[in-house]
Write a structure and sequence with these properties.
By secondary structure, this protein is of the alpha/beta class.
Length: about 180
């Protein structure tokens, strides 16, 4: 049974972004949302949405990949009430910049290619050209005196504003104070 309060809340909208499977969109709900034209969802498949019925009603259902975590993190930390303010994006066709292409970095590159990512690698320093190309930067180097803050304030400023950083080996590889301040 569909709650009338839910229908009343959703009825005015033309586009709804469904986060995972939290809100179900069965045929009985879709039939009561006359303005709805598009449902986006985090993930390429959402079993909570009756996609066949949506299609029959002319409602497009579109799945997407990863979220804008950096921006959402900023929104949460700055008390923005609209903290889920972006639609997710996929990996296919994006560029992964690897810092460190040794044993682990080369394995990450193989996996990334399965997701149709363009992979560029360098060891160990980021160049302005590589920073400007990378949608995702992933670190795979050992922490040493020369590698501490290998991603400095200046390096962070070169990154694409929407880029992601994956630092699984060691926190001090990145100038964390500069990262928190936004580069």
């Amino acid at each position: 049974m569909i709650c009338d309060a839910l229908v009343e809340c959703l009825a005015p909208y033309h586009i709804i972004s469904a986060m995972r499977k939290h809100t179900k969109f069965p045929a009985s709900l879709l039939d009561r949302l006359p303005n709805l034209k598009l449902i986006t969802t985090t993930g390429m498949r959402n079993l909570g949405i009756d996609t066949e019925h949506a299609k029959s009603k002319g409602i497009v259902v579109s799945g997407t990949g990863a979220r804008a975590i950096r921006l959402e993190d900023w929104n949460v930390k700055n008390d923005n009430p609209q903290w889920q303010s972006t639609l997710p994006l996929g990996l296919s066709g994006r560029t992964l910049g690897l810092i460190g292409v040794g044993k682990l970095g080369s394995q990450v590159a193989k996996i990334a290619k399965l997701f149709n990512l363009r992979v560029i690698g360098w060891s160990p320093h980021l160049t302005p050209e590589r920073a400007e190309e990378s949608d995702i930067v992933s670190l795979h180097i050992v922490l040493s005196a020369s590698a501490r803050h290998i991603l400095s304030r200046d390096d962070l400023a070169l990154l694409i504003p929407t880029s992601f950083i994956i630092n699984t080996p060691r926190g001090p590889l990145i100038d964390e104070a500069a990262l928190i301040e936004g580069g």
